Amino acid sequence: MKKSNRRPKISRSKTVLHILTGSIAAYKACDLIGPLKRLGARVVCIMTDSAKEFITPLTLRALTGEKVFFDFFAADVPYNVQHISLADEADLILVAPASANFIARLAAGFANDLASCVILSARCPIVIAPAMNDQMYEHPITQENIQKLKKVGCHFVEPIVGDLACGKKAVGHIADTSQLIATVQKLLN
């Protein structure tokens, strides 16, 4: 009997909040949204200001069919307390790509933008996919921040060796889409 390569669907009632941070790997969000939606998840994107330098909210809205959130003080949102409402809606939060800056802010407990406030308010699984230069990723401070977040229950999908923005091939390239999808699926099912 031939084994099926099809993945089981994620329940349609599951919402994945996809947080994008300031990394060239933000363009990979486009590769993640389609497979998540095909598996049945609702995908809602939250962007840091730095992420908007790499990809536009319009692109993400077109791919998800959902409003894209980035302004902590937006008046036109359908929520009373936006970060709490978004956190309550989430069945899982996927931070992909996660910059060294964002990881450091999370590890320090900063709540100075919508994305970090949502994470601090969330009570669902959090998956973090680092993407940065190898020297930044391997720096002891970044590694300490990652360990700190792992200790409080964050799940990490480690970066791989690949082409980096600086032109070299080294660790720091965001994990393969299939690995990220498999991790999300495992945690939601």
Sum this structure up briefly.
It contains eight helices and seven strands, in the order βαβααβααβααβββα. The chain is of the alpha/beta class.
What does this structure look like?
With 189 residues, the chain is of the alpha/beta class. The chain has one domain (15-188): Rossmann fold. Helix content is 38%, strand content 19%. The chain has 8 helices and 7 strands; from the N terminus they run E-H-E-H-H-E-H-H-E-H-H-E-E-E-H. A 5-stranded parallel beta sheet has the order 2-1-3-4-5, with helices on both faces. Strands 6-7 form a two-stranded antiparallel ribbon. Helix 1 (29-38) runs parallel beside helix 2 and helix 4 (100-108) packs across helix 7. The mean pLDDT is 90.
What is the radius of gyration computed over CA atoms, rounded to a whole number of angstroms? 16 Å
Q: End-to-end span in angstroms? A: 25 Å
Please indicate the percent range of residues in DSSP E strands (runs of 2 or more).
15-25%
Order of helices and strands: EHEHHEHHEHHEEEH
Structural class: alpha/beta
Features:
189 residues, alpha/beta, Rossmann fold, five-stranded parallel beta sheet, 8 helices
Topology:
Layout: E1 15-20, H1 29-38, E2 42-47, H2 57-64, H3 82-89, E3 92-98, H4 100-108, H5 114-121, E4 126-130, H6 134-138, H7 140-151, E5 155-156, E6 160-163, E7 169-173, H8 177-188
Parallel strand pairs: 1-2, 1-3, 3-4, 4-5
Antiparallel strand pairs: 6-7
Helix pairs in contact: 1-2, 3-5, 4-7
